[in-house]
């Protein structure tokens, strides 16, 4: 019997680079593996360079193109705007889209400042009253092992949480000739390792513990302050050769950040985010220690979650690796047989699954802009603390 045709969710996406490709893959595949209340349609993709956006549309399966995101918002055949552009454009696009009655999915971090994030959150709250919803793309929440970590903590497996240890380690800026891109330009990206990858650690730590960070003390460093402009740009960065004719430009963001933190339920935390940890490719690690047990995750081994159960019999206690590929595990049952593993792209697919399910039920998807504003406040506090010689900087999540 043919599957019943679901109403369409017509998507317009702004941006088509790394995140655009990851999101396109998710929009194309989510309804093929999960039973969704709406069927995503890849209606239009926007980018400033006409031939590049046409190429992207063809490659990634979009039905039409625009060279200005405003045109996406004006179209009445689009229900949702997906924002995959640099951070300096998020506020303007998201606010215009919500005001035009379009749902929004916005890549992280939500914005480049708390002020922008606050404005976006206020507009999103008003839109939600009219059944128009906004969500921020903290996709790592949807990695099955991290989702499992959260549900085990919620079930009390760790007892009282004492420590949160979060690292996000990459190495694509170890090469000092790697070209200057928007990710190293503060006016476009807001910050460097902090907002690009540290933001994921902050969101994941608050998500799995269900607690908020209330204060931080931070150090930030930029190891390479000048980089070649106009080099070949591959993936996140690329490699470059430099000679006397190479033009150099300033790096205006951090290469690395470390900070200590307090959470409102009592735990203390240490965080490290760097794009200069040679050999570490995408080591998004999170360890939580409680009075009854510990859990540890490393994205470089993303299909596993390590669990130490302090309640096990003395003599046989030890970390064991849970292979997160069983049908009982979050999201996994819709994919492959046990043991066959998932990849980076699945977090984005699960993000679409959860978003479309919430929209179908006319409920607020998570993380909402309010939650993402909470992360933005932590990013701002870390930046402020580092600027003030690691001065302890508090975060008031009640502020609007
Ligand atoms: C997107 O979610 C993102 O944070 C990228 O911006 C980072 O560069 C990537 O390495 C992890 O994912």
What does this structure look like?
By secondary structure, the protein is α/β, with parallel strands linked by helices. It has 2 domains: 8-139, NAD(P)-binding Rossmann-like Domain (Rossmann fold), CATH 3.40.50.720; 143-393, Dihydrodipicolinate Reductase, domain 2. Helix content is 32%, strand content 24%. The chain has helices spanning 18-33, 50-60, 69-74, 90-99, 114-129, 144-154, 186-189, 193-209, 344-360, 369-387, and strands at 8-14, 39-46, 64-66, 80-83, 103-107, 134-137, 161-169, 213-221, 226-228, 248-250, 256-263, 268-274, 283-290, 293-298, 304-309, 320-323, 393-394. It has a 9-stranded mixed β-sheet. A 6-stranded parallel β-sheet has the order 3-2-1-4-5-6, with helices on both faces. The structure holds alpha-L-sorbopyranose (SOE). Alpha-L-sorbopyranose binds at residues 19, 108, 139, 196-197, 200, 236.
Summarize the structure.
The protein is α/β, with parallel strands linked by helices and 400 residues long.
């Amino acid at each position: 019997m043919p599957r019943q045709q679901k109403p369409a969710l017509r998507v317009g996406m702004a941006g088509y680079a790394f995140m655009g490709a990851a999101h396109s893959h998710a929009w194309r595949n989510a309804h093929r593996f999960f039973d969704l209340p709406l069927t995503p349609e890849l209606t239009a993709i926007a980018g400033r360079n006409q031939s590049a956006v046409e190429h992207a549309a063809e490659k990634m399966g979009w039905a039409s193109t625009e060279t200005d995101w405003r045109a996406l918002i004006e179209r009445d055949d689009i229900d949702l705007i997906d924002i995959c552009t640099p951070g300096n454009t998020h506020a303007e696009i998201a606010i215009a889209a919500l005001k035009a009655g379009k749902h929004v999915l916005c890549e992280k971090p939500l914005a480049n400042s708390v002020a922008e994030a606050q404005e976006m959150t206020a507009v999103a709250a008003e839109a939600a009253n009219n059944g128009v919803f906004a969500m921020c793309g903290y996709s790592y929440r949807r990695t099955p092992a991290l989702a499992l970590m959260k549900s085990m903590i919620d079930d009390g497996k760790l007892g009282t949480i004492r420590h949160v240890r979060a690292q996000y380690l990459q190495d694509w800026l170890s090469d000092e000739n790697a070209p200057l891109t928007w990710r190293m330009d503060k006016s476009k990206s807001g910050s460097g390792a902090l907002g690009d990858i540290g933001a994921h650690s902050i969101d994941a730590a608050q998500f799995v513990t269900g607690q908020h960070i209330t204060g931080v003390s931070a150090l930030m460093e930029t190891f390479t302050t000048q980089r070649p402009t106009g080099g070949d740009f591959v993936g996140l960065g690329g490699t470059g050769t430099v000679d006397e004719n190479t033009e150099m430009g300033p790096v205006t963001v951090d290469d690395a950040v470390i900070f200590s933190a307090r959470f409102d339920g009592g735990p203390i935390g240490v965080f490290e985010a760097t794009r200069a940890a040679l050999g570490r490719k995408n080591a998004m690690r999170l360890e939580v220690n409680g009075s009854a047990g510990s859990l540890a995750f490393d994205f470089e081994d993303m299909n596993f979650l390590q669990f130490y159960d302090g309640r096990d019999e003395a003599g046989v206690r030890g970390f064991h690796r849970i292979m997160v590929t069983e049908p009982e595990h979050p999201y996994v049952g819709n994919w492959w047989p046990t043991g066959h593993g998932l990849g980076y792209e699945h977090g984005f697919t699960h993000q679409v699954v959860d978003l479309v399910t919430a929209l179908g039920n006319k409920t607020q998807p998570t993380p909402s802009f309010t939650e993402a504003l909470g992360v933005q406040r932590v990013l701002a506090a870390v930046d402020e603390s580092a600027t003030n010689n690691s001065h302890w900087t508090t975060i008031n999540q009640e502020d609007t």
